[in-house]
């Protein structure tokens, strides 16, 4: 994956998932190629987040050889046979013997919904596309076909919103110069108890922040940070996950600001996704 993901955005996508999931959510990770690595065993995210991220940074180095889907699913099932969902991420087609449909659990076990992410021009062959679509369809998941690694983080966030029963994200894609800002607004549903703002970009040399979060109703500000909005931010090198709770109905507005453009690009692209939940967490 070093050629298809030189900035290791797959690691950042996993870090984002760790930061966005509830502390009690169980998560494990297995890397595969011609050999497999148990990156970290299934465990609750909350007390193990730092260790999970450290293992990802250490072990996910694109050094596992070829691409053996049989090994991938057999290894994942051995580590966590009762997994409620799987996320299968690959930049290559199966190239180690015949594929034995190992994504299917043996009877009488129900199938495990599998979200499949393929990100590489190397997956353009019809056979590879059909296989990845079949894995998702057979298990009740979904296939995300990406041309490259740049969309890994937004797609991982979209999957996360589904796993946590949030609304489909409203997405804004902006190009912002250093020091520049973009203003956005989202209607807060009456039954929503929390909102998640997720910002993603591709270079760790760039940075963004969210400012001036408020809710307006009939042109009047009815909620700001601390009155009564509670805002909690988790930051990675190429993403922000912001949880806003104590919502009230109205239109939530906020400002996205480019605080660093160290990559040297005159305009930096940032994707902002806003989802809502009836949960207070």
UniProtKB/TrEMBL annotation:
Matching InterPro entries = VWF_A, vWFA_dom_sf
**Which residue numbers delimit the VWFA domain?**
49-159
Give the superkingdom in one word: Bacteria
Q: What is this protein called?
A: VWFA domain-containing protein
Identify the species of origin: Nocardioides kongjuensis
């Amino acid at each position: 994956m070093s050629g298809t993901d030189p900035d290791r955005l797959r690691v950042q996508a996993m870090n984002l998932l760790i930061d966005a999931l509830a502390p009690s959510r169980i998560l494990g990770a297995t890397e595969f190629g011609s050999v497999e690595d148990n990156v970290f065993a299934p465990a609750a995210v909350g007390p193990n987040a730092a260790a999970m991220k450290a293992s990802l940074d250490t072990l996910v180095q694109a050094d596992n050889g070829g691409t053996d889907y049989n090994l991938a699913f057999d290894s994942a099932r051995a580590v966590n046979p009762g997994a409620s969902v799987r996320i299968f991420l690959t930049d290559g087609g199966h190239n180690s013997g015949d594929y034995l449909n190992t994504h299917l659990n043996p009877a009488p076990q129900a199938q495990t919904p599998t979200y499949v992410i393929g990100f590489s021009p190397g997956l353009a062959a019809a056979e590879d596309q059909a296989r990845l679509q079949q894995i998702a369809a057979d298990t009740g998941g979904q296939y995300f076909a990406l041309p490259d690694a740049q969309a890994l983080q937004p797609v991982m966030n979209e999957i996360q919103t589904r796993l946590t029963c949030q609304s489909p994200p409203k997405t804004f894609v902006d190009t912002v110069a250093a020091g520049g800002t973009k203003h956005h607004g989202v209607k807060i549903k009456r039954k929503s108890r929390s909102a998640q703002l997720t910002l993603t970009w591709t270079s760790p040399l760039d940075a963004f922040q969210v400012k001036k979060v408020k809710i307006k109703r009939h042109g009047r500000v009815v909620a700001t940070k601390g009155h009564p909005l509670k805002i909690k931010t988790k930051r990675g090198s190429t993403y922000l996950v912001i949880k806003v709770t104590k919502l009230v109905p109205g239109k939530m507005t906020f400002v996205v600001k480019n605080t660093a453009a160290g990559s040297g690009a005159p305009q930096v692209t940032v994707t902002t996704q806003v989802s809502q939940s009836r949960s207070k967490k």
